[in-house]
Amino acid sequence: MKDGPGTTPQSSGKLLELGAAPQPLRWLCVVLGAALGFVVGRVLGVRRAQVLGAMRRAGVGAPARAASQMYAGLGAGLFELLASALVRPRPGLAAQSEALPQGPAIVLCAHTGNWDSSACAVARQTPLCVVTKRLKLGWVDRLWQRIRKDSGVQLLTAGGAAQGVAQALRDGKLVVMMIDQAPERVRATSVVPFLGAPARVDLAPALLAARAGVPVILALPLRRPGGWHAVRLAGRWSPPARGKRAWARRVMRAATLALDAHVRQHPEQWLWMHRRWKDAPALPSPEAPIAPSAFESAQVGGVLALPPRAGRKLSRPLA
Question: Does the pTM of the predicted model rise above 0.90?
């Protein structure tokens, strides 16, 4: 589907069927992840009060159950990522290669589903860069970075990645940037309603895309029944010749509201542990309504399936 300038997202609607990891390994990751999630979420209670408070504010039904599922999914994602590094991928099913977005483009992503394994799967098939933060625990950070690098992911450290992003786009690569964390600065941000409260949104991804003249793609990882994973292609926007800052502001607002709709549909699959709403001022009066509009919710569509875990290989394309 051809995209044009503006801020109305267009979805691919493609479903790509891929290979799968062996069933025992798939369920082992789920079982171990549930155990780890129980320890982290219930025994240690890591940020559990914050998670429950944010879910209640967003109107999530049965927040305690959704929180437990979130911690279990986070644990499963860790073991899935480790398994993907230990088990040699096997060929998957034939797929439609046009389902995968091609670079150069900025890919907006979020901490939904298994975002790391999804990025690794894509990077095995097409040039992919990820703008990433570093973890405080050194040995965990080194392991995390190594697994992704071994899968072909090029890593750019957040905070000073502008030149690296520009070069990657000139090289024709996809560049993934996360949009669900609070920016570490106020400059070049806007305030958007997100899950029941104002949140500051970084305009940098859309501004970089506008400067390079490349499209912005919203891709949201998603867990599916049976151990399968997917990437929901929720929007695509091309920059205009003029008015790029206003365009960037509108695109990032639309992408944030599309993410809002996605999380409300799958609340157990988003990482609620982030301090997403810190330092955000009150919304201006024209933006006072918190819930996303029906139009913006309806734009979330188009699913690209990724395999259930380690023993798989994409047959081309899209955290």
Answer: no
